[in-house]
């Protein structure tokens, strides 16, 4: 069992402001896997004060861009060196299958970090843009200030470093608020930050609940909010940011549509949808959960998709052979089970899985990976984010109808097109207002911007554009 008894505040391990222990339990069998302190508003005050002093008076924002880059690169290297340990820890906390957390920590996160490091080498942090008579004009890229980074439990280190790395490269100071479900790996990240050797006050990491999150983002000492989580929480944070005129970036929910055109290779499409739709137990904001299939080949496609889903190994997430693990907590399990029952009541047909808990796994927070067929896009199972291994297959007649269905959503985060003609697939993708689209499951560069349209968020992460979210531009004429 892993146990922490202090919080990481301003670069030091400090006693929490109030007694109390946060227990982290396995979603597989509910066994206790570790304990941490629980941050409260007083701890937030201490962290923000330390970050404010470090930004207003300390050396970090005043270092050269190269000096900051060297320090952040050290953090990234130290993090990569603990990839296997961190993957196992996250799996034990949130139920993500080990195959997924190993890939994410060994490959996905390092690629994301390196893209940010490359981006930090690109800009002229101060440049002269012209002269008017004897007057020179200089444009400076300066850090936005003290950043409140609030992250979810489904991919905690990916979300944390997607915010911390660019913020630190820009010269910001950071207060990271982690979810209670993944409190242990949050403080493991603090151990890595400590070893990287940032100046006092630059980074704080606090596991806490929603009430403390709202206190943090509302704090007068915060200049910028960076949030990943539900659209409902994002709306609340956006309203706070609007009232206080704080900078804000929001990476929110999705209900991504994958359009399978009639000429697509169904075998390849279904094989790739296994990952794009069901990775991380379907607890994935960009999951392709609305699968749009042509009426002319609908039954054929549904048969292949259902056979794939029925073949998935469901069970202990620490077993390398498991593809789908448990939901993160009892409330999330109940939410998904309720949607499975709702789908049946709405008139959708179950092609694979269905309501209920898999036999033999009643001790954990498991659900059956499910494929609904005969789905109308107006059904709630097609309109609302379920955040679990639940797919809706929606029929379409022609390409224009497919695009209309894809666009008929409050969200606009991810999606895809499947076709024998990739150029045509890209043309269809251009008609869809979504932030992150792939044709035939093509890999997307970690330097490409990530984020959504509509209710899927504000702003972008990753690469040069992600770095820019933590920068203000200052003009000086003299």
Model description:
With 478 residues, the protein is of the alpha/beta class. It has 2 domains: 2-252 and 455-477, Aldehyde Dehydrogenase, Chain A, domain 1 (3-Layer(aba) Sandwich); 256-445, 3-Layer(aba) Sandwich (Aldehyde Dehydrogenase, Chain A, domain 2). The protein is 40% helix and 22% strand. The protein has a 7-stranded mixed beta sheet, sandwiched between helices. The protein has a 6-stranded mixed beta sheet with strand order 10-9-8-11-12-20, with helices on both faces. Helix 2 packs antiparallel against helix 5 (156-170), helix 3 (83-94) crosses helix 4 and helix 4 (98-121) runs parallel beside helix 5 (156-170). The longest helix has 24 residues, at 98-121. The termini are far apart. The mean pLDDT is 97.
Overall radius of gyration: 23 Å
Strand fraction: 15-25%
Strands across the major sheet, in which order? Answer: 15-16-17-14-13-18-19
Judged by helices, strands and strand pairing, the structural class is alpha/beta
Can you tell me the CATH architecture of the largest domain?
3-Layer(aba) Sandwich
| Distance between the ends | 61 Å
List keywords for this structure.
478 residues; alpha/beta; Aldehyde Dehydrogenase, Chain A, domain 1; Aldehyde Dehydrogenase, Chain A, domain 2; 2 domains; seven-stranded mixed beta sheet; 15 helices; 21 strands; 22% strand
Topology:
Blueprint: E1 2-3, E2 7-9, E3 12-14, E4 21-25, E5 32-37, H1 41-56, H2 65-80, H3 83-94, H4 98-121, E6 126-132, E7 135-143, E8 146-150, H5 156-170, E9 173-178, H6 183-196, E10 203-207, H7 210-218, E11 224-228, H8 231-244, E12 247-251, E13 256-260, H9 266-278, E14 288-294, H10 298-310, H11 330-346, E15 349-352, E16 370-373, H12 380-383, E17 390-396, H13 399-407, E18 414-418, H14 422-429, E19 436-439, E20 457-458, H15 463-468, E21 471-477
Parallel strand pairs: 1-5, 8-9, 8-11, 9-10, 11-12, 13-14, 13-18, 14-17, 16-17, 18-19
Antiparallel strand pairs: 2-3, 4-5, 6-7, 7-21, 12-20, 15-16
